[in-house]
Structures are given as structure tokens and as C-alpha cells.
């Protein structure tokens, strides 16, 4: 997979961070590395004041570094900030951060030594992953997490995990992989540590997960609509044109396509004049969720292909300047927003499960119990649905903000973007499980109703039934639910 600093997407990131894909640098990316490093070398040679390169960091930004300090400042930068606290982040999350950092190096803004950038790439390709604690970033860059990653990659300390999940001291793991870290020069330590690539990487994985969750919500909502015997009037394109939200129209189009061939497309076959909101307004809620996710994808894609460096090299201007690009309010706010969208979709999903379980509303056996067997049917699963929804709703609460107390008043703002992104990703995972529960309820309701399904819903029903047979007698369903998550 070739990185170029411009075209990394959430779906590509999710793939390369998990499947062992080797990364390469584009020719233009290599050129940008060389050109940006030349600007840094010039600044050092001429002792031009550059934050974190020829001056100190944080509240010491006004202090010039001596010649003796310059030689070891990159190592000191990493050693003094390697404080990320356990529990360790999942391997895929750290590899996502590594991939994003490699990609953003190629913008030319970091000014990192080409040899250091290439060493990080070789460590990634060798399947080695730093052990990085999940606590320590406040969103004014991911400084402590980045330092822990950088220190391990350079063999200065910490641990690395290989493809077989064996953990070794970083220096030993690099030696076993026949990798020799290059010497760190000025700016290199800060380039490895001071960036927002953990937040961007986590958010990229969250967007990819949320896309799967939302597509499942849409397809299973259509199956529930068929099982319930819903009224299609709210999905009519003429009705939606009265309030022209484009994402509502797209969701409705997908649901109508899934229902193509259903007798319900003739409103005369509807069982009710007006269905419950969870059925009638599925399009509006899923459309709003899709809109929030589209905005998140746009923001996250920008972050994964942009510089979060401070200072940053302006290659064409031959200058190094201080920036605010390490700060991540766009990322934090859009992750909070998209998580709320998922919560809205999941809330209606749980409501639809309850409606499908109601004999009064569906005309089907109470709790979808098989009429030939005396069981409580889906009644116990309603508790599981609400348990999952409670967890998701908690994750979807906006992350708190306050004035930061860092750097003696110089660094007095934060975003907590990483926590917002982490919550967003976990919310998407719970959303997929809630949808799996709805899938089981809808499939059971379709079986009990005994009517022919339209072609695409018949395929969806078959996929569900391939991993979870029709529920007749009581049986544990936890494994079925996890299997359904993967097939819908």
C-alpha cells in the first residue's frame, strides 16, 4: 500500500492496521521528506529560533538550546514524555496511529529525518507494534502517547509486540527483526511524539466501524418493517421532498430497494394507518445518523492527510513556523456528534425490537415465542437490548471540556479528542450488537408471519438463519448474536 500524504481513508486505515499490509512511500512523498528536512537542517545551522528544535518546549519555548543540549534534545524529548498509562491500547489502534503518522510525514510539514521516517515504516512492515497505554492525551496533540510509541520504535525503552503477540523489550525486538534504529537528530524526537495521529487513527477506525453499524441498521430496519407489516407512505419520495434532507432520501431509497417486490409497497396492504415512530420515522433518524457520520468521515479524512505538527515546515517558503494545527476541536466535536447519531439509531432499533415482541401491535405470538413450545421467547433479550443501549448512551454523551492547567498557563486549552474518538468507536461496536438483536427478532417475526419475503430481504433472512436457526425451544443466544454481527 503506497502512502502519499493525501489519500488515506478510514476504510483503508482499518484494513492496513489489521491485515499486515506493507506500506511504501510515494516518490513525491520521499521528495517532500528530503525537502522539509533540508529546511530544518538550515534552521539548526543558522540557529534560527524554532520551537522544539532550537528552543525548549512548553513554558521553556523562549529559552534557546545550547549546542550541548541540541545534540541530545530529541532523546530527552521522548524520555521526558513517555508516560502513557495502562491499560494498553489494542494493537490495531496503535498501528492505525503509526500508519497515520507515516502518511502525515509525507506532507512535508514534520521536517523529520527521512531515515527516521523510513525506520518507522520498516517497524510497521515487520509487524512490530509498540505497547502504548491508553491514558495520557488531552487532545492538544497526543504527546505522551506519541512519545511512548516513538521511544519504543527507536529502541530507547518500552516494549514491542510481534505478529504472534509476543511481547519483548523494544531493543531486543528490533534486534530480532534485524532493524537498527538511526540516530535521532534535531526535531526527530518531537516529530515522533508531538502530533494528533492517535486521535486521528482512533477516529478513522471509529468511522469505519460506524459505517458498518449504520449499513446494518438500515438493512435490518427494512427487515423489521417487512416483519411488522409497515406502512410505506413515510418512505415515499414525494413525501420526503416536502422536507428535502438528502440523507433521508438516500436511506429511504436503500430501504425501498430492499423492499422491492414486497406487497407492502402498495400502501393498501399496510396493517395500520400510522405505525409507531420507531417504524414510521426510521428514515428520518437513520438519515440524521448518516449525515452525522458523513461529516465525521469528512473531518477524519482531513485529519489523516494533514499536518498536526507544531512547529511545521512550509517547504515552498523555506520556513519553519509555529502552528495551532496540533489542536483537535474538529475531531472531538464531530466524534461526539456522530456518536449521538448512532445512539439515536440504536434507540429506535431497541424500540422496534419491543414492537416486534408485542402481540397487540403485530398480531404475532407475544415475545415472538414459538406457539408450539411454551417459552418466554424474546422476553429475556429485551433486558440485553436495554443493557447494550444503556452502555451506548453513556458513550454518546459529549466529552467534558475545561481550561487546561498545563505549561504554566501557556497551554490552557484541550479537546480530549482521543476520548471522543474512543467513545465513538465503542458506541459503533455496541450499535452493531443491538442491530444483531433486532435482526434475530425480525427474522423470528418473519418466520412466524410465514409470508414470502422480497428477494433481497430473503437473502438477508437466509444469511441470519445460516448462523442462527429459528428459535423454537429456549437456548443460549450469546454466540448467535456475535455471529449475526458479522453477517449483517
Question: Could you outline the blueprint of secondary structure elements for this entry?
Answer:
Layout: E1 2-3, H1 10-16, E2 24-25, H2 27-45, H3 67-79, E3 85-88, H4 91-105, H5 114-125, E4 129-130, E5 133-135, H6 143-153, E6 159-161, E7 167-169, H7 170-176, H8 188-193, H9 197-228, H10 237-240, H11 246-258, H12 277-280, H13 282-304, E8 312-314, E9 319-321, H14 329-356, H15 359-362, H16 379-395, H17 417-449, H18 455-467, H19 478-487
Parallel strand pairs: 1-2
Antiparallel strand pairs: 3-5, 4-6, 6-7, 8-9
Helix pairs in contact: 1-9, 3-6, 4-5, 4-9, 9-11, 9-13, 9-14, 9-17, 11-13, 13-14, 14-16, 14-17, 16-17, 17-19
Account of the protein in words:
By secondary structure, the chain is mainly α. It has helices at residues 10-16, 27-45, 67-79, 91-105, 114-125, 143-153, 170-176, 188-193, 197-228, 237-240, 246-258, 277-280, 282-304, 329-356, 359-362, 379-395, 417-449, 455-467, 478-487; strands at 2-3, 24-25, 85-88, 129-130, 133-135, 159-161, 167-169, 312-314, 319-321. The chain has a 3-stranded antiparallel sheet with strand order 4-6-7. Strand 8 and strand 9 form a beta hairpin. Helix 1 (10-16) packs across helix 9, helix 16 packs antiparallel against helix 17 and helix 17 crosses helix 19. The chain is elongated.
